[in-house]
Design a protein that fits this description.
single chain; 455 residues; mainly alpha; 3-stranded mixed beta sheet; 24 helices; binds zinc ion
């Protein structure tokens, strides 16, 4: 009992207390997985090093949507997280949460390889490896799931110290072995993942290439590789996969979401500040792109725009190029150009939130308060998208509309598992809300708070 209490205290500092209200059986159903996953995400969100980059999140969602139909995942929602971490790592958490470090783009050369990594992660979810790992653990106890949340959190954020403290506890050993997929599960994820990859219209050989990258990294690595600590490689894994790939006859290629040039440009943006050579990204030299982004961070917007305009048109007109153009032209006051670029992305990707968020920033730059028409609908449909609420907060601050700022901060707090703070913001929003305005946004926030409380 004393040991259990000690563990709970430790977990309290890493994961939210709410996860302790859950038991292993909660993972037994798809609904339970979603509840667990969302509770886990809220508890760790502020430490994940998320990149609030609407373009990256939209793209990752689009890739996941394409792949998801190949798996037995039912109506499970997908939460895509773009992480500002330079290690080669991606992870899947129960309930459809997929995180991808920007470091993977140093090595993944095309969309097929990204899809191979995602297919492997989705296979872990579809095969319910988290739950099966826990169930197979003989000494499963009530504390294990909470410990699992803590260990998972610590590993995902590379908080070595915290993970180690948790692992040293007795039950944590179980939790870690459940989290670190067994070699058998790795082979299963490779096998099922590669079939899904092929059925989604991507060459299965891309999966072999990813495993090769991993084994090269493993042999060069002087420090532990985050991906391999949770997805052990094993000698058998590569040969099993290669045999499987050889069996598959790949014929039906589907047009990727991004063309090769588009993907190369996306890689440049994601590897900002990281050494990516022309050899690994031959289509586009990332150096000038990184320079432009550096000027942007230093608020040298005119200099950044001049450099951007020197790029060949075929690079400027990639989707990532348009994304940069939007940011630069909004900052330097060329609103017509910004509008045109926003409309182009919206035309190709009608479900993306990036264009609406860009329109919010355009409105702020113009100094005329008017929220984009579609924004409220998107907030109702996608309240879990943090980038929407961040955009609303920027808007509210720019035009000194306190009631909107409280609303945005209420959602932000809720998405980070800060229930009390969220309630406080809701009550502030309620007091400041104009009498003539529709109350529905307040009701939505209140309902979401109640739902979180009832878990
Ligand atoms: Zn794995």
């Amino acid at each position: 009992m004393r040991k259990l209490l000690f563990l709970c205290l430790l977990i309290g500092s890493v994961a939210v207390d709410r996860s302790q209200a859950l038991s292993a059986d909660d993972l037994a159903t798809r609904e339970g997985e979603i509840v667990f996953g969302q509770a886990w995400l809220k508890s760790i969100r502020s430490r994940l090093g998320e990149r609030i980059d609407p373009f990256c999140i939209d793209l990752l969602e689009t890739w996941l949507t394409r792949l998801k139909n190949q798996f037995d995942l039912g109506t499970m929602p997908m939460t895509a997280l773009c992480l500002n971490n330079q290690d080669f790592n991606a992870f899947a958490a129960p309930g459809g949460i997929i995180g991808m470090n920007r470091g993977v783009y140093l090595d993944l050369k095309n969309e097929s390889e990204v899809m191979a990594v995602l297919a492997h992660e989705l296979a872990h979810l579809a095969q319910r490896h988290h739950y099966r790992g826990l169930r197979n653990s003989e000494r499963l106890s009530t504390g294990t799931l909470a410990t699992l949340a803590g260990v998972f959190a610590a590993i995902a954020t590379r908080q070595g110290q915290a993970a180690q403290s948790l692992i040293l506890g007795g039950q944590a050993a179980n939790a870690t072995s459940a989290l670190t997929y067994s070699r058998e599960y790795e082979r299963e994820a490779d096998r099922i993942g590669v079939d899904a990859l092929q059925n989604a219209g991507y060459p299965p050989a891309a999966m072999s290439r990813v495993l090769q990258v991993l084994s090269e990294k493993q042999s060069q690595a002087t420090r532990d590789l985050a991906f391999l600590s949770t997805h052990p490689l094993g000698i058998q894994r590569q040969s099993d996969l290669d045999a499987r790939v050889a069996q598959l006859s790949f014929s039906e290629a589907r047009a990727p979401v991004l063309s090769n040039r588009d993907f190369a440009m996306f890689r440049c943006v994601q590897t900002e500040g990281l050494p990516i050579s022309v050899q690994t990204n031959p289509t586009i030299d990332c150096q000038p792109i990184h320079k432009i982004l550096e000027h942007y961070r230093d608020e040298k917007f005119q200099a950044a725009l001049s450099l951007f305009d020197e790029l060949p048109k075929m690079i400027r007109s990639t989707f990532s190029g348009l994304d940069i153009e939007i940011a630069l032209t909004i900052k330097s006051g060329d609103f017509d150009r910004a509008t045109e670029a926003i409309d182009t992305i919206a035309l190709f990707f009608p479900s993306w939130l990036q264009p609406s968020i860009a329109r919010v920033d355009l409105t702020i730059a113009r100094g005329v308060p008017k929220l984009p028409r579609e924004l409220r609908d998107q907030m109702v449909q996608r309240p879990e998208r943090l980038d929407l609420w961040r955009a609303l907060a920027r808007y509210a601050q720019a035009f000194k509309q306190d009631y909107l700022l409280f609303e945005a901060r209420g959602w932000d707090a809720l998405l980070h598992g800060k229930l009390e703070a969220s309630k406080m913001q809701l009550s502030r929003a309620r007091k400041a809300w104009p009498k003539t305005l529709n109350q529905r946004p307040l009701q939505s926030l209140e309902a979401a708070i109640k739902q979180t409380e009832s878990l």
